Amino acid sequence: MQMINRTEHLHRLQGMAITKMNQLVLIGALAAGSALAVAAEETICFESRKGSSEVTKTEIAEGLPNVKCSPRAGGVLWWGDPFDGTEAMGKMPVEADYSKGEAVVKPRAPQLSFLPVCGVACHNGTFPAENDDPNPRKLVMHGDVVPDALNLQHGRGGIWCLDCHHSDTRNKLVDNFGNEVSFDEPQKLCGKCHGPVYRDWRDGIHGKRIGEWASTGKKRWWVCTECHNPHDVQQGARNRGYAQLIPERAPILPKGIYNKDHEGHQAAH
Predict the structure, then answer these.
(1) Does any domain span residue 245?
(2) What was the pLDDT predicted at 99?
């Protein structure tokens, strides 16, 4: 009887050991899977305006990423290829610095997830009912974009949605003559009101460009909505046209330099 009980006890211990081993194997597999998932997780950072200029980090050549992302602020620090994902700007309606070299832009449409369907699934002439009334009114939809349609934070009460969006083709913008303007060319819309800034942008004074140094070289131009949120230009109490970003830390001084006195210019020099 004792022999049988001892045998059963040994079998029970063996079963417990096997169960424990299986549990350890499962835990190890889950840990390995989690590590692989973390390793495979995409790194995404923004180029200019957080939430509207995101780019996914990829490798364009061995050891060369398309962008270097800031671990602190989440912005792009530098570009491995300044022309990655760009296309020709197209014909500009006026003479500008653009004519001195090759100008490219990054299309804005891919950043607007609902753009392809907004003129088909919605605003299709059937639902909702057509309404070309340009006067401000409370919106049933788009609260995530415009929290208070009766207090649009752009134009200080002088403009509203249909001053910028085409009344018939809602996935297009509109110029002063009622012509459709692509979301990839917002400068043609913004220039309607912001003439001096538009001229500065054309001449390379306003905005950002990256690429070749030569005046006749190839450059990527940033367009208006890559930096400015058109639905919140005033930024509330800040009354500014550009949202604040988390600043980067000051760079570490080179070895052997203990302060920034080397930046001063002495009269003797």
Answers:
(1) no
(2) 64
